[in-house]
Amino acid sequence: MSINHIRPWRHIERRKSRQIHVGNVPVGGDAPIAVQTMTNTPTTDVAATVAQVQAAAEAGADIVRVSVPDEASSRALKEIVRESPVPIVADIHFHYKRGIEAAEAGAACLRINPGNIGDEKRVAEVIRAAKYHNCSIRIGVNAGSLEKHLLDKYGEPCPEAMVESGLDHIRILQDHDFHEFKISVKASDVFMSAAAYQQLAEATDAPIHLGITEAGGFVSGTIKSAIGLGQLLWMGIGDTLRVSLSADPVEEVKVGFEILKSLGLRHRGVNIISCPSCARQGFDVIKTVEALEKRLEHVKTPMSLSIIGCVVNGPGEALMTDVGFTGGGAGSGMVYLAGKASHKMSNAQMVDHIVEEVEKKAAQLDAEAAAAE
Question: For position 329, what pLDDT does the model report?
Answer without folding.
Answer: 83
